[in-house]
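Re: that chain you flagged

S.,

Sorry for the slow reply, it's been a week of failed gels. I finally had a moment to sit down with the sequence you sent. For the record, here it is as I used it:
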Amino acid sequence: MTEHCDPYGFAMELRPACCSIVTNPDEYRFTDEKWMQSRTASPDAPLNIYEMHLGSWQRNSENANGWFTYEQLADRLIPYLLDGGYTHVEFLPLSEHPFDGSWGYQNTGFFAPTSRYGTPAQLRLLIDRLHHAGIGAIMDFVPVHFAVDSYGLARYDGTPLYEYPHSAVGESEWGSYNFIHSRREVRCFLQSAANYWLEEFHFDGLRMDAVSRLIYWQGDPQRGVNGDTLDFLKNMNRGLKARHPSALLIAEDSTAYSGVTRPVDEGGLGFDYKWDLGWMHDTLEFCRTQPDLRPRDRGKLLWSMHYFANEHYLLPLSHDEVVHGKAAIVQKMWGADEKDKYAQARTMYLYMFAHPGKKLNFMGNELGQLYEWNEAGTLDGALADRPFHRFFHSLCRTYRDNSALHADYAPDSFAWAENRMDEPSLFGLVRRGGGETLLALCNFGDAPAVYDGELGEAPVLLLHTDMTEFGGDTEESDLNLEKPLILPPYSGMLLRI
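Prediction finished late last night. Pasting the structure tokens below so you have them in one place:
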């Protein structure tokens, strides 16, 4: 007979040990009442998420595995997030998992915070301190599949209890087992786990992993909608919103399924936000293209504006885009010259933050790393003193401080200011909201571009990607906000008009 850990256990031993540990949920008492009462899920609120993997953000030389505890990370992480102007931090799954290389996405303990970084009480303390600093905390939740390890949920009673009995649908592409959501006990288990993280740890939101696999069989629209999993998803989201109306529910969904961010009672799936993976792919492909061919591919940056108001989209440049040979974000930019790559990345990020939709960037993006993320490594702290990091955090703070960039989903919140074939690499975006109007100009060409459109009576420059302090060539003394505006190659400007 195979022994299993407690599926509802609140703590587990550090891998490779696998026993459940009895722990006291009341060991830590939250003091974040003010935050919990004032937090909001309003789509008009700013949302700039710093996505991170706790174990590889910084390394602890005094720990054999290189990890800091949840408590130690609070001392390091919170000042960094505050300085960077982020509104939220999103943790890759913190539920217990046996294999470091799964990044937490193959779980054995759906109710147990991973012991890699300490105790459940220490995790509660981390979230409490984040809230006192005015920073929200989101966790990735995995309702689709689970680890195959024998001590976990696999063949729990000697039969496929939590999983499908047939490998054709029971085994996932990640080498894990798919939950069988048609069973009420499985639904109850997952709904309870999702609620547990919101209720007991005061997380401000859950990002649901692989939602396409909950909509369609194996995530394949050609195989049709999976009615059981779709029904489970709607019921879970309806229940979570009833219990936690101000918590954020975020869908990682790559499909064209309609109504993902519509309330369940209005025929939708009940999420607050959906990752816009189409925008992500189109934008990065455009930036990979050599400059003389970019006019041909203008549609890649224009297309998202045809659908941006259909859902409440979130623009992600996530961990998935900087691993497995995909290259770091700056590396993806066209060309071999490092200076040009950084210049294009700065312009791309200005376009991202001016584009309607909430924002998410994985750790290391803000540093302009030139190598992929590795869960066994760490970020290069020396890059924090480089110009690109200075630019990125200036951009984040500018986003936070300007309400026109927060009104993302009203049809009148966005308009094109520049979309002409005589300047095919110049894009102009007008954003309106909170009583202000902003203009973002992005020149993706390798030659100067001219903007001769409306600037208002007294335009105010909020950000220029080509300033010398950010690694560009423009001195403050060279700035001229009179028409026509001349934008250097691979540069962008954000103005209040």
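What I noticed first: The CA atoms of residues 327 and 347 lie 18 Å apart.

Talk soon,
D.
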